[in-house]
Amino acid sequence: MKSFNEISKYINTEIDNINWTKEPVGLYEPISYTMKQGGKRIRPALLLMAYNLFQDDIENAIKPAIGIEVFHNFTLLHDDIMDKASIRRGKPTVHIKWDENTAILSGDVMQIIAYEFIAQTEAPYLKEVLLLFSKTAAEICEGQQYDMEFETREDVSSEEYLEMIRLKTAVLLGCSLQIGAILGGASQEDAKLLYDFGVNIGIAFQLKDDLLDVYGDKDIFGKQIGGDIFSNKKTFLLIHAKNKAKDDISEKLEFWLKKENPDRESKINEVTKIYNQLEVKNICEEAMNSYYKKAIANLDFVDVSSTKKQELRKLAEKLLHRND
Amino acid sequence: MKSFNEISKYINTEIDNINWTKEPVGLYEPISYTMKQGGKRIRPALLLMAYNLFQDDIENAIKPAIGIEVFHNFTLLHDDIMDKASIRRGKPTVHIKWDENTAILSGDVMQIIAYEFIAQTEAPYLKEVLLLFSKTAAEICEGQQYDMEFETREDVSSEEYLEMIRLKTAVLLGCSLQIGAILGGASQEDAKLLYDFGVNIGIAFQLKDDLLDVYGDKDIFGKQIGGDIFSNKKTFLLIHAKNKAKDDISEKLEFWLKKENPDRESKINEVTKIYNQLEVKNICEEAMNSYYKKAIANLDFVDVSSTKKQELRKLAEKLLHRND
Does pTM top 0.90 for this prediction? Predict the structure, then answer.
């Protein structure tokens, strides 16, 4: 069994050794720029770790693992255009550094490159992996669509929010694990359990993200604290705050949500105070822990020794207790 | 052997029977809108016609054929954003009818749906088809990139232009034919000859498009005549006109290319006059005919009876003598 760190190191070496740039440079340079920014590369690690539960030669599964990471980075690139985000991983986003057309077209090519890597899957598994990957890829776009639609809706329920983050974030973690399991020759049951493990971890992961945005340590968290609050993003925290708030607290919350050109710091401080009064942090943490427990239960049922599953369990815990 | 018309009818029925719309409607409705606009659907027809050279049961190849058509429509959708085109097939483009984010994301999903159809290829051919399709898909993006780069370049050569249209337009025709041949069990040589046939027809097809923009009958041609001239698009005609023009004709041409806010009709009339004086129509027709001849030579070498190849030959001729 390889540790998460060993697997991560291997993935980084493989990805960083790829020469992404070719002619026309104007099309491929932004892809190289995006892929060289690193990130946690959790998804390919999950794929290889799931594979490693059943097989030792993780090199055999590296191509689809890279495909998943390329696809993930493609979604970030296109999402950044749609969300008008100017910074990603501390650097200007592609549509800012180049322009929007470049970002659209380079993203399109990244999606194709992702499929080229996925196509390197061993023949007997290729169709199954392709269809799972494609289904997941479409779901991620559906999640992004819901996320955008929620921006202009005032009645988003917490169930709808959870479904949105399941699609936008969690299914790709599940898909990565399931592909690793399929390629490793796992039973259908184990492959499905690993998928569910990934989805539940993914939802917990996103709830943690919502928490970090408000309660993270700004020196450790990569982004500025309070970005979600400032932009009225309908996170799990805000949805529950709106549901729980009554009378003057409700009025105060609405005041900050509707205030035009608010002072950034005041808005973040005041809304955080409201969150604290309403104890929505607890609700979010409870939901997060509940998904985490479901995930661990899924993992427990996978028909492989506990020792082998230790690394996935540790990674799940690490993702939940992370500060960035 | 099925005729082109029979095959087209079959494709139209199959595509028009698909229900493209599902939740979230905001994401899938633009896909339905795009796919329902029809178009010539030449590419899936080429795929099935190539398959039909070797096999009778064209139903066996319909899924990848649909995949190719979905992919083609995806490229039009994203190109229309990049080119700021407001009309496609007589109707508002997706980014106009909805908005740019919708057009980006719906296009992304179309690319995934294209791959889902391609994944329905029979297992023994899947990897080969996938890699050919992906290589072609990336080339189409490269062609679009060159096309955009040419807009701000003054020194585009006719060789560069031909390479751009090969990538942007011709390779997908070749790819469609080659996939049909592969699925039909053709030899590698025949599959390659059909690819080359498609590429050469594709280049001839695009040169015909350049000609129709200037010399088409506006009542038959789907678009307004002279659009390329008005927008200074570096077509084969303009590139050759710039090369051939001397002294006062050169000055006149430059005047119209540089004139800000020109009267549309005057500019189109005057530049067309220059084209006529310089006889660039002939140069373009000669190039077109030369690619057409190469294509027919490729087809002649395919190891199948002339009778069977009759329909492809007729289609090639029809594409070249079309008025729209």
Answer: yes
